[in-house]
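Input chain follows. Return structure tokens only.
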Amino acid sequence: MKTLFIRIRTISPALYYCALGHLALFALMFIIAQFDHRQLMGINLWTKPIKFAISIAIYCLTWPLLLQYLPFERLKKRFVNFTVFAMTFEMLAIATQAARGQLSHYNTSGAYNALVFSAMGIVIVSQTLFALYMGIMFFKVRAQQLTPALLWAIRLGIIMACIFAFEGGIMASRMAHTVGAADGGPGLPLFNWSRIAGDLRIAHFMGLHALQIVPLFVLFSGLKNARPAVVFALIYFVLVSLLFYNAMLGRPVF
């Protein structure tokens, strides 16, 4: 693990330290949550920023391992800089809204809350479009430093993650993530996904982590040929799509 972290730091110090900062925030907010018992929609208001901090840290640690295979240095630098900005902005918005006792998402009650929600949307859509562009750029890469299986896993993992990132737009248009009930009902421990209705966050979460899951499947399985990697990615895409369809029908998974 230490070797992996050193490698990530060597490839992209900016993303490495951004990830460390979010891990530190994760620990800090976890401690704060033990003393601040205010709640939003039935859960401790620090639960959401805690989850986002760990998720952003994983995101920032993942990209250097993918970017090392991309040759376009100037483009990579711009992507890294924008990613650090976007992730820091999102975390700052979510954490400060929690500190104010306000929802960060779907909150248009008042000019400031609406401004924060709108700005978060603009930044994260920009980040997703940039990430999608990087995924498309991987189609210009030849399988020389990496196997055909890993190259296709990276391509499809990025594209799939971006597709389900845009699912956030559907939630924003509905101003809710629960289908068939109001947000805030009984939920799965830790994730808080609804146990009584459809929850669009499940497909959102699983789709976003295609960025890690598809390449890791190839690495751990030892696949070399592209075809089984593509088949795995397609099966994964279908399964996550079914999760989305199930949620839109208002059906709980758990």
